[in-house]
Amino acid sequence: APCWPMQRDTAGAAPASLRAAGRRPRRPLPSGDPTPRRSRARREWRRARDLRSRARRSQWHGIPGSKALNSELLLLLPPLRSPRPTYMARFDAAPGPQLKPAKVRYHQVDGNSLTIGHVVSKTPPPPGSTSFHSVEVVHAGGPVAERLRRAPRIDATYPVRFNELPETGCLPAREFAAIFEVLEGMMLAKANRQSLVLWVGRPDKPELDGFAGFLGMLPFRGISVALVSADAVRYPDPFSYRTPSGVLEHDANDPARMGKCCVSAMFGPLPARSFTARLREWAPIDVQPPAGCAELLRLPFKIAGLPLPMITYAGEYEKGVAALAERISAAYPAGSLCPIVSCGEVVDRLGYGLDVLAALRERGHAGHYFTHKSGETSKRWAEYGKPELLGWVAQAKAAGQTPLFIAVGGGCNGNATGVVAAMTGAAFVEVPTTPLHYNDATTSAKKAFSLVLDGKIRAKNLLGTFYLPRLVWCINETFLTSSTASVHSTVGECTKTMNMLADPSSAAGRADYANILGANEFASDTTRILSCIDGFEALVHFIEDAPTREAKAAVLRLGEAIAEARAAAQCGTETARAAYASLCEGRRQLLQRFRARFYELPTAARVAIDAFLTVSNKEIVGAKAMFLAYEDPFEKYRALLFEYAHTLGHAVEAWLAGAIDTARASGVAADIVEAAVRNHGQCVGMAVVWAGAIAAELGALEGDGYVCHQGMVYLFNSFGGFSFGPVRALCDALGVSKPDFLREVLAGVRLDNKRGYCECGDDASVDQLVTHRPGRMLGSEDPNAEATLVF
Question: 393, 403 in Cβ contact below 8 A?
C-alpha cells in the first residue's frame, strides 16, 4: 500500500504475526519516536550509519559473524539520510502549476513487416514496470490488422487479444457505445494499467484513428496506447482528435485535462518525428467573494497547481441559484452558450435542476434538460449515452455554441455527467446537492462510470477520465433535503481521511508526509471533525424528524406529478403549460416551508449543524488538495492513500446496490430493505472498521492506536449508519448465505480499478492498512505497491 518511504521499524523485532507474513511495521526514525528532538535524531542517525557501514563491510569482506549481522541489520536499518532530510523541503515548497506538455514519438514502420513485438519494444511501459501485462489489439478490420492476427508469435511472455470495433455509421450514440463495449470486454479479460492497447488503423479509413485516444482516455487508473496509423498522407495528431461524427472529441492542450495525453507512441509509414503538446492557459469561471460578503465562501483548492473555484453559497436558495446563473452568464456572451443540465430522478423531483436551467434561460441562455435514473446501478455508460443527449451536443457545435454540462445533484450524477462532458469536449460545471459530492467527488478530477452488467455492479468507477469543472457551486440549503444515508456517507469518508491522514499540520504529521510536494499550503487538522459530533447528530435528528420527513415526501410526490406533466406542457396546449407552471409554483412554496422548518430549530442546533458542515467541508477539501494540488493530481501514486478502505468498501457497496434492487423487485418487506441501504461513504466507514481489525490481527495496530482508529467510526454510529446487522438481515431475507456473500464481494475486489500496481494471483489482492496510530500507513517492499518512492 502507498505510504511514505521513511516508515521503517528499527526499534526491535516485528510482531510475530507480521514476521510470519513476511512484512514489518515501520517507523519514521530508529528510535520509533514520531517527534524526536533533533539531537536525539542526530545520535540515532549516526548510530544507524555506523551499523550499516559495519554490515556492508562484513558482507563485502567476509568478517566473522557477518551473516547474523546482515540478517538483523540490513533487513531493519533505514537507508542513510541526514537528520534534516532534504525532501522535507518538498512539504514546504510552493511549486506552482504542475502541467507538463506531453511528448509523443512517431516511429516509421513498414506495414508489411510490422510486428506486435516491435510496437511493444518501442512503446514506453507504464511507470514502475519494465514490460506489459497484456496486449489488447483493437481494430476495425483492414489488411494490417489481418496480417497481425495471422503472424506467428515469437515472444509469448504476454497474452495478445484481438478486439474488433463495432460499426458505428458516424452516429454519436453508436460511437459512444462502441468505445465502452470494447473497453468492457478488455476489463473483464483482466486488462489493467500494465496492459498495452494497440490500435490498428485502416488505409481507407484514417478518420477512425481518433478512437485510439478514447480507448486510452477511459481506464482512469491508466493504460498505455500505441496507435498504428496506415495514413500515408498526414500524421495523426496525438493531442487533438475526434470520432467521425465530430461529436466526441479530445484535446490534450485543454488545461481542464491537466496535460494528460492518451497516446503513448505512434507508428506509420511517414518519416519519424516527435510531437509536443501546447497547453493553453487555464480559464475557470473565477469567482472571488467580495470583501465582507458573508453569503459567499471560497474554499482554497487546487489540482495540478490550477486553482479550482469551490464556492459555498450560505444565503437563501433562490438567491444562490440566481447568483450562479449570473456568474455563468458573465463568463459567456449571450447566445454563445448551450447549457445542458443533468440530474437524477430525486433531484428532478426536488426541482433543483430545472431552477438552474430557468435562471440561465432568463439571462439569454436557452438550453436542455436531461434526467436519468438515480442510484449506483445506474452509473453506467448506457444510461448517459442517449441519442438525444449527444444530439444536443451536435446541434450546439453545429451552431457554433459552447456546450456546457451542468451536473446538479449527488456524486453519481456528477461523475457520470463529467465523463460525457470530457468525451464531447464540452465545458463542465458541478452543483453538488449533497455534502459528500461537494467535499469528496468534486475535489477529484476523475470522472467515471462503473462496470454494470445485468443490473449488477461488477466494478466501481472502472471506466472514466480526468476532467476539471470550470466551477463548483454549492448552495447550503440544498443539503437540508439530503437523506440520513447521505449524511452518514459524508462522515464515513471523513473517518477514512482522519485515519489515513490525521493531523498533517502537526510535527508528527509533517514527518509522516514530509515527501508530499507543497503539502504545507493545505495541511490542517482533519481530526477537528470529531469535535463536530453534536452538529452531525442535530442534522440527522432534523432529517429524521417526522414532520421533516413528511414535508420532504410531499415535495417529492408533487415533483413526480410535475415530471409527468412536463412532456405534455412541452408539446401541449396553453392550458397544459399553465397547469404545469401552477404545479411548479406549488412545489416552490412547499420547499420554502420545508426550509423554514430548519430556521425554526433552536439556535444552538443550527449553529452546531453549520459548524459540522463548515468544518467537514474545509478539512476534507484541504486534505484532498494537500495531495492533488502538486504531488499526484491523477491519483495514481501517493494520492492512492485516499483509497484506504475503498477496495473492500467498493465491493460491498456494489454488491449491496444490486441486492437492494433484487429485494425491492422480489417483494421483500420495505422496512428490511430500507434499513439495509448503505451509500458509498457508509460502506467505506464499515470497511474502515474491517481494515482496523485486519491490521490488529497482523499486529500492526494495537493498544490506543487501535482504539482510536475504530473509535472514529463508532463515535458517529449512534444512529446505526455503519452497522452491518441490517445488511445481514437483508441477506437472510434473500436467502444469501455467508459463503455466497463473500464469494460475490471478493469477485468485485478482483476487478477493483487499482489492479495492475502489483503482481498477484487471481486469488490474492493488495490493500492498505494503518499501523501504530491513525495518520501512519503500513509500508511495502514492493516499489509499485509503495507507489510513493520519489526523492
Answer: yes
Confidence of residue 573 (pLDDT cuts 50, 70, 90): confident
Give percent of the chain with pLDDT exceeding 70.
85
In the chain, what is the greatest distance between 2 CA atoms, to the nearest angstrom?
100
Strand extents, DSSP E, 596-656: none
Condensed to tens digits (0 to 9), the pLDDT of residues 441-459 reads 999 999 999 999 888 888 8
User: Do 53 and 60 contact (CB within 8 A), yes or no?
Assistant: no
CA distance 280 to 368: 29
225 closest CA partner among 252, 205, 245: 252
Cell readout for 657 is: 446496490
Backbone angles phi, psi at 51, to 5 degrees: -65, -40
Write a three-state SS string for 771-784: CCCCCCECCCCCHH
Grid cell for residue 210: 481518433
The whole-angstrom distance between residue 434's C-alpha and the CA centroid of its chain comes to 16
Whole-prediction pTM: 0.86
With 60 as the cut, is the pLDDT of residue 520 above it? yes
* Residue 756, Ramachandran bin (φ over 0: left; ψ between -120 and 50: alpha; else beta): left
Residue 236, C-alpha cell as written in the block: 495523426
For residue 776, CA distances in Å to 93, 503, 512, 684 come to 22, 10, 7, 18
- The full length of the chain comes to 791
d(CA 36, CA 45): 12
Q: Residue for cell digits 490474492?
A: 764
Mean pLDDT to the nearest integer, 381-393? 96
Cα separation, 503 vs 508, in Å, equals: 8
C-alpha cell read off for 740: 455466497
- CA–CA distance from 711 to each of 48, 113, 707, 708, 718 (Å)? 36, 64, 6, 5, 12
| Grid coordinates of 253 | 492542450
Q: Within its chain, how far is the Cα of 198 from the centroid?
A: 26
Distance, CA of 82 to chain centre: 36
pLDDT tens per residue, range 722-779: 999 999 999 999 999 999 999 999 988 888 877 666 666 666 555 688 999 999 988 7
Number of C-beta neighbours around residue 64 at 10 A: 8
Residue 26, pLDDT > 70, answer no
* Mean pLDDT value of segment 28-34: 33
pLDDT above 70: residue 81: no
Identity of the amino acid at 118: H
| DSSP E strand boundaries for 467-580 | 471-475
User: Which amino acid appears at position 574 of this protein?
Assistant: E
* Count of CB atoms situated within 10 Å of the CB of 432: 26
Q: Which residues contact 617 (CB under 8 A, 6 or more apart)?
A: 299, 312, 435, 438, 439
